[in-house]
Specification:
GO terms for molecular function: arginine-tRNA ligase activity; ATP binding. The structure is a single chain. This protein has 23 helices and 13 strands. The strands form 4 sheets. A 5-stranded parallel beta sheet has the order 6-5-4-10-11, with helices on both faces. Helix 6 links the parallel strand 4 and strand 5. Helix 20 runs parallel beside helix 23. With 565 residues, the protein is α/β, with parallel strands linked by helices. Among the domains are: 81 residues, Arginyl tRNA synthetase N-terminal domain (Gyrase A, domain 2); 73 residues, no CATH class; 148 residues, Isoleucyl-tRNA Synthetase, Domain 1 (Orthogonal Bundle), CATH 1.10.730. The chain is globular and about 85 Å long. It starts with a helix and ends in an 8-residue tail after the last helix. Bound molecules: arginine (ARG). The site of arginine has 9 residues, from helix 13 and strand 10.
């Protein structure tokens, strides 16, 4: 907000549009350099003046006309020092306004976000957890930035692995066990299939035959398939409920079965399909990529074929302006190939498709492979996190009402934040003990600070004072800690826009950490509830603004913000 104000002041002095100036303004790293700085170097050529001269002229003009600010120069910079007594109240009013935190930057644009997308009959892996958490946060952030968002869970409910599963089920399956523990039983069958197929390779043929039957609408096979899908979904939904994640659309890969024919036909009409060892491929030599497989030698479709049909559907039927795929970095080549084939088909909008990749997550040092059956089950991880949170609560505040629900909020919050605080492309070494700690750069640290603010506001009767029309005197917020906190609070919206711009929710996560640290500095500087009502009310107002932003930020990241911990 200070940047916007400064750009409004500078615009007439330079006869440049305010937006252009705003993009050039900097937030100095040290308070001695002011609150906002304008570098004049880029203007030297055009104005035929040395940068320090331009800076001096601008500073003089601002000191003359602008209100509540002091302009100084340092070399080619104009440094602006806002007067907290004038600006504190304005900043707080802006933050407390209902619309704060939402903008119309994306108005009129429709983003379709592919997220989570676990595979049926397999455990919900840590990679799917990352996709769910990052994708859900992005969806919320895009919404806050004014975009229309459609989230799609692109369930892996189709492919040769179902042939394997059905083949294994016919040999070693047990319906009762499957109904009781669908994922664990499917996993047992899947692992057994791989073990046996090493000794008896013709099992692979049997699996292929089952999948072919499935693709050719064999009723009995389809019923069995549907049963697998439904049972798995029940288990996934428990995880989604615990994480508080909802999808606008649940369209698995199988949804595109009747939509792939058109794509294959199009590719063939355009002369893009070529035979290679009996399979049909699109060559991508010019793009320096291996060929993209479209139809296998037995005529069945494959993952890229389904993704081509999916992209076309999202663009043409859903009307997407932007298509995001929140999927692990190990699928980079797959998406590059799919987008390249779209371009070859003449679909220019392939440029609006983005693979939002992320790195591997190791859980307590473990990497996972479904094939070998070494799996960390997400529901167990969530249980363990909630149990750990509960034991902390028992020690800290045993009389807390609703202990279990709060522990669940903190446990899942620890996991979500333990992921989102990292830049998405980095690999994450997740350790529960560390992530659940109440101090350090953790979710619980943010949640605990929020609860502390909430209790402070209750104790200081902030709402009552506000209702009674207490007036805010910004003078009481001019200490370095208070002023720096005020500036940080007002940067919430720009952290959201930065996050959206780079599809990087960690920007908001790190922003919230900074906000929380700044708040704790302010809190430790001196009592908030004092003898003097004016002082108390000013400090409480700042705390309320921090609380509001912290809560909104936590919710956007997909966490909960309990009022009491
Ligand atoms: N089910 C896939 C997997 O687990 C992820 C799907 C991602 N989305 C997509 N449109 N390909 O690897």
């Amino acid at each position: 907000m200070l940047k916007e104000t400064a750009s409004q002041w500078l615009a007439p002095c330079l006869s440049l549009p305010a937006e252009e100036i705003a993009a050039k303004l900097e937030l100095p790293p040290k308070p001695e350099l002011g609150d906002v700085a304008f570098p004049c170097f880029a203007l030297a050529k055009q104005l035929r003046k040395a940068p320090p001269v331009i800076a001096r002229e601008l500073a003089d003009a601002l000191n003359e006309t602008a209100e509540g600010v002091r302009a100084e120069t340092a070399g080619g910079y104009v440094n602006l020092f806002f007067d907290p007594a004038v600006w504190a109240g304005r900043l707080l009013d802006a933050v407390m306004a209902e619309s704060f935190g939402s903008s119309d930057a994306g108005a009129g644009r429709h983003v379709v976000i592919d997220l989570s997308s676990p595979n049926i009959a397999k455990p919900f892996g840590i990679g799917h957890l990352r996709s769910t958490v990052i994708g859900n946060a992005l969806a919320n952030l895009y919404r806050a930035a004014g975009y229309r968002v459609t989230t799609v869970n692109h369930l892996g409910d189709w492919g040769t692995q179902f042939g394997k599963l059905i083949s294994a089920y016919h040999r070693w399956g047990d319906r009762i066990r499957l109904e009781a523990e669908p994922i664990r039983e499917s996993l047992r069958l899947y692992v057994k299939f791989h073990e046996e197929a090493e000794k008896e390779p013709q099992l692979e043929d049997d699996a292929r035959e089952w999948f072919r039957k499935l693709e050719t609408d064999d009723a009995e096979t389809q019923t069995l398939w549907r049963f697998f899908v439904e049972e798995s979904l029940k288990e996934f939904n428990r995880v989604y409920d615990r994480l508080g994640v909802k999808f606008d659309l649940l369209l698995g890969e199988s949804f595109y079965n009747d939509k792939m024919g058109a794509v294959v036909e199009r590719l063939s009409e355009l002369g893009l399909l070529e035979e290679s060892d009996g399979a049909q491929v699109v060559r991508l030599e010019e793009q320096q990529m291996p060929p993209c497989l479209i139809l296998k030698s037995d005529g069945t479709t494959i993952y890229p074929t389904r993704d081509l049909a999916t992209a076309v559907y999202r663009k043409k039927v859903l009307g997407a302006d932007q298509l995001l795929y929140v999927v692990g970095a190990e699928q980079t080549l797959h998406f590059q190939q799919v987008f390249a084939v779209l371009r070859k088909m003449g679909e220019d909008w392939a440029a609006d498709c983005r693979h939002v990749a992320f790195g591997l997550m190791r859980y307590e040092g473990k990497k996972m492979s479904t094939r070998r059956g070494k799996v960390v089950f997400l529901d167990e991880v969530l249980d363990e996190a909630a149990a750990k949170a509960l034991s902390v609560i028992e020690a800290k505040n045993p009389s807390l009402p609703d202990k279990e629900a709060v522990a669940e909020a903190i446990g899942t919050g620890a996991i979500v934040f333990g992921d989102l605080k990292n830049r998405r492309l980095l690999s994450v070494d997740f350790h529960l003990e560390e992530a659940i700690s109440f101090d350090g750069e953790t979710g619980p640290y943010l949640q605990y600070t929020y609860a502390r603010i909430a209790s402070l506001l209750r104790k200081g009767s902030y709402e009552r004072l506000t209702a009674e029309g207490a007036a805010l005197d910004g003078q009481h917020l001019s200490t370095p800690a208070a002023w720096s906190l005020l500036k940080t609070v007002s940067l919430f919206e720009s952290s959201i826009l930065d996050a959206v711009h780079e599809n990087e929710p960690s920007y908001v996560a790190r922003y919230l950490l900074e906000l929380t640290k700044d708040f704790n500095r302010f809190y430790n500087e001196g009592k908030i509830i004092t003898e003097t009502q004016d002082v108390t009310y000013a400090k409480l107002s700042l705390a309320a603004a921090v609380g509001k932003v912290l809560r909104q930020g936590l919710l956007m990241l997909g966490m909960k913000a309990p009022e009491q911990i």
